[in-house]
Amino acid sequence: xxATLLAIFSSFSSEMAANNERSFIxxxxxxxxxxxxxxxxxxxxQRGYKLVACKQMQASKExxxxxxxxxxxxxxFKGLVTYMASGPVVAMVxxxxxxxxTGRKMLGATNPLESNPGTIRGDYCIDVGRNxxxxxxxxxxxxxxxxxxxxxxxxxxxxxxxxxWVYE
Length: 168
Ligand code: IDP
Ligand code: MG
Prior knowledge:
This protein is an alpha+beta fold. It has 9 helices and 4 strands, in the order H-E-H-H-E-H-H-E-H-H-E-H-H. It has helices spanning 2-18, 29-33, 37-47, 61-67, 77-85, 99-107, 120-124, 139-149, 163-166; strands at 22-27, 50-57, 89-95, 133-135. It has a 4-stranded antiparallel sheet with strand order 2-3-1-4. The longest helix is centred in the N-terminal third of the chain and has 17 residues, at 2-18. It is globular and about 45 Å long. The protein starts with a helix and ends with a helix. Inosine-5'-diphosphate is lined by residues 71, 76, 80, 110, 128-129, 131, 134, 137.
């Protein structure tokens, strides 16, 4: 009896843990200026992902240089940082099963001309340097980006009432 209960509990908690993956998603300055914040948030909400952090801010160039550190050798780096610092962004953390990989699919290819229709970039933008949104490319980068953009107490821990209707 105890063993059965323990087995049920451990499968439940590993199931729960698998649904706790987090991704850093950001509406870039062009997305904010073009009134697409709600549309981008809506897609993650409708998919069943849980919003656990959200804030609007205008990031400094120093902050953005850290965020995009892995691209510092690229020719477009300076322009990228200038664009990203040019206005407010909306930084978010979304949580749920496989949210990093699925979030990237929802965003679409980096170059919007190669993003499939139905993806965010494929529906709302054209140029790679104005591609309206950011999403972490791995669980490891998500952790690094979340730490860079949010203080621990800005991230909410709560159960969404829809969880048993989203996950079996
Ligand atoms: P990602 O945003 O899809 O992860 P990355 O390769 O990490 O793509 O590039 C970060 C951002 O840098 C892109 O979203 C885009 O805004 C910008 N970027 C990437 N490649 C180019 C380019 O060739 N020209 C101008 N901007 C670029
Ligand atoms: Mg990237």
